[in-house]
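Summary for the lay section of the report: proteins are chains of building blocks that fold into shapes. Here we show the chain for SMI1/KNR4 family protein and then a coded description of the shape we predicted for it.
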Amino acid sequence: MKPRLWEVLDLPVREPAPTDWAQVEASLGTALPEDYKQVVSRYRGLVVGGFIRVLHPHGRRQGMDIVVEDESNRAWIEFLHEEAEFGEYEPPPYAAFPQPGGILRWGVTIDGDYCHWVTNPHGPDTWHVVVSEHKGDQWTEFPGGFEDFLSAFFLDRSRVTCFRPDWPATDSTSCFRE
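The coded shape description reads as follows.
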């Protein structure tokens, strides 16, 4: 099925290298949602609306590889929990994956906010999205998955509390893609 998001995504500039999804998923310790794999398999890199950088198994820029960022996400969540013990922050409402119900990062905004899946034992195509402000003190849940979230945000102009108030911008359907 063609993702609705493809209404605004142009064809890739270059053909991406094939992704060995079995290897990526083994490295992460979980299968990934099909809508994510469909979109990411089409591009070498993707920044949707000039705002959300989608992590990629072949992320060529620092901070853009989904496997590398999984380790970074775990360290970040651990840091937030440690800081909460000292009263610096409220504890985050989620653990990091692979904990039950843990979050797995799939994107980062140009402001440094994070897009995650909230994992569950029912399989990756049932995961919903949560967005966190970069300091971890504000979290916004979205009831759908990867493609549903991006479509709602960029096509339907839904608001995300922890994103800056001028996003999505009226011209935010433009995409950088490789």
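Put simply, here is one thing we learned. Residues 20-163 form one domain.
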